[in-house]
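Dear colleague,

Following up on yesterday's call, I've attached the two folding results inline so they're easy to grep. Please treat them as preliminary; we haven't cross-checked anything against experimental data yet. The first protein's sequence and structure tokens come first.
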Amino acid sequence: CPIGAVFWNDEINKPMICIHCGYCIDYCPHGVLTMEET
């Protein structure tokens, strides 16, 4: 992910997905990020 919303966490050896502010949604070149209400 060029934006950094999806990245690899070496400590737990798993992918991490940022779900905080939603700012990057409009800038994802792949159009796969969305904001969901919880």
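Below is the second protein, in the same order (sequence, then structure):
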Amino acid sequence: VAFIPLLIFLGMASLVYGAWVCMGQTNLKRMVAYSSVSHMGLIFLGIATMQPLGIAGALFMMFAHGIISPLLFAVAGAFKHHYHTLEIGSMRGIAHHSPWLAAHMMLGWMASLGLPLLAGFVAEVTILIAFWMSFGWLVLLPTLTLIITAVYYLSSMQKTIFESNDPHHGILPDTLHGEDPRDISWHENSGMIILGALTILFGILPFIFWGMMSGWSSGFLIDTLVEAMQSEGVKP
């Protein structure tokens, strides 16, 4: 309990800093890395609530992050392999050349931002609800940060993946040196499909693991309360 203010500070700082730095990035791998910082901030906030719902949400965020982050890093690796760069700031319309890569990129970012029916959504919503129950209107700061970040990222991804003055070619990086861009191979695609399917599965059916996480969270808090009472000489 004594560390709750520190957890809130670290959570808020990580969430805001990660989102702020992400919005200025054009390097795909760095964008993924800093989005992970924001996820860690949400985990801190969930733990700080000291409620079963919040701690279960933090656990689910760790689980979801373990699926979403590998998907995004796989996308970044494939992007580097096929386009010889990680800079996406000036690129437009990659879906015309790499539809599968573009699809995985869009799914990964939507899941990372916590859009509905994806694994990240369940974790974010439960943490924010628990934070509201514990700290009231203070929940507005992480909520607004998440909304602003989501709007910026979806707009940026829409431009990079779909928007183009030339619907057949798009704007491609100079690093290709005239080489025709290709889509990802079947072995790259198969791994991303598995991660993407898990992201959707646990967004639609979170109860597969949620009951276990919720039960553990309740037991953990009860044990913590009993230990605190015993240390004060109070019989539970």
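For the second protein, one point worth flagging: The chain has a mean pLDDT of 85.

Best wishes,
A.L.
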